[in-house]
Amino acid sequence: VLMSRMPGALKGNVMRNDTVRVEQVPSAELSGKRILIVDDNPINLKLMQILVGQLGGTYDCAESGEQAISASQHGKYDLILMDINMPEMDGVDAARHIRCIEADVAKTPIIALTANALPGDRERYLAAGMDDYLTKPVSENSLIAIVRRWCQSATTSGAIGKQELISGRANIDPEIFDPVQGMRLSFGDQHTWIMVLNLLLDELPAYARKFAEMPESDLEQLAFHSHKLAGSSCYCGTASLNQAARDVEIYCTQPDLEKLGPALKKLKHHIEQLMQLDKAGVLRPDKAPVVQTV
After folding, report:
1. Which of 230, 215, 221, 218 is closest to 270 using CA atoms?
2. What are the CA-CA distances from residue 75 to residues 59, 65, 105 (Å)?
3. With 0-12 CB in 10 A as exposed, 13-18 as middle and 19+ as buried, what is 44?
């Protein structure tokens, strides 16, 4: 029954048995550094907290552009990681306000975080006073490169003293659900991957209702919710869902109504696929492929 509802989701009797080691990464790159993390998506916010903490840094968090401005006025930071797409005030406007407040004092590097870097975005970020940008999902290596570029006296000593051995064994199409990829994107940490996966699966029914109720002509709301879903799914090992959400956002922000309809249909299909697999009990951690620490 499950296979008939979701053609292509399962690959018959094909079994996967993938084993990869997550590379060690420096643990002290952010030692002594204080970071302001700005993101309205709780999954992304939590993951950035974990990554900054793993790299030895301390952090404060803001969930909106207004909170980011307030935090920058009352605290001194070595780096600001600024999400772009937030309601009320986006990251670009928040960066402009922060630059105005700083005036002639030393400027804090502001790094844009974006799920979709579209043509012209880099120039728009720089014009707002931002210094650089990172595309989600953010990896250890990409954040380390930013730290070395923009934070003076970044340290490079030490390494995280663990490696993860991921053994995946499932007959689900890896484009739909791939725990190996999910572990890699979750910084090699099993507990982080389980946390973000559960959060995503819990959110899917609400997303299904929203996309079913929203008219296709409401480009602003479609772009907003598809962006949020792209952010929530980018660390989970759900590549097809993530790409479908990104496509809908692109076709809304750079309007292409001819492509939007099929893209939205595809997104709804991928949401339904994962909901059905979750209902079948094959996605949650107690049913997921084994992950061992060695």
Report:
1. 230
2. 11, 15, 14
3. buried
Check if the beta carbon of residue 200 is closer than 8 Å to that of residue 233. Answer: yes
pLDDT tens across 179-211, in order? 888 887 877 777 888 888 999 999 999 999 999
Q: CA dihedral defined by 71, 74, 80, 85, rounded to 10 degrees?
A: 20
SS (H, E, C) 63-86: CCHHHHHHHHHHCCCCEEEEECCC
Instruction: Give the angle 131-135-140 at the CA atoms, nearest 5°.
Output: 95
Burial per residue of 86-113, b for 16 or more beta-carbon CB atoms within 10 angstroms, e otherwise: beebbbbebbbbbbeeeeeeeebbbbbb
Token output for 8: 């292509």
Task: Determine which helix (DSSP H) or strand (DSSP E) holds 265, and give its type and residue range.
Answer: helix 257-279
Q: What is the DSSP letter of 286?
A: T
The pTM (predicted TM-score) of the whole model is 0.65
Largest alpha-carbon pair distance within the chain?
66
Residue ranges of the chain with per-residue pLDDT less than 70: 1-27, 103-105, 117, 152-171, 285-294
The SS3 of residue 137 is coil
- Can you name the residues that pair with 113 across neighbouring β-strands? 83, 134
> What is the per-residue DSSP string for 207-228?
HHHHHHHS-TT-HHHHHHHHHH
Q: Which of 156, 38, 166, 14 is nearest to 97 (CA)?
A: 38
